[in-house]
Amino acid sequence: MKHVVFVLHSIYAIAMGRLPKQDKDQVLNEVESYRLKAGLSRGELAEKVEVHYQTIGYIERGEYAPTLALALRLSEALNCSIEQLFKLKGKVDE
Hints:
6% strand, 2 strands, 434 Repressor (Amino-terminal Domain), mainly alpha, two-stranded antiparallel sheet
């Protein structure tokens, strides 16, 4: 049963946008920095944007690329633009 749960969890993670670390299109972000500046915990930010607090952790660690709708909610909640929050790894130095 443990293997079935692990496989289902892995499929869910892949389907929901979690990115492999070596992905050249990895999305880098400043969510944690802006969250801390706003004085919000992960849980408080998660409530504001209507996701689970663990999702905020995944985003901050670069393990999850948020949907456009979630990115818009995050930028609104953190009072900044999407461009201030997110960049493609290959575009950072340009």
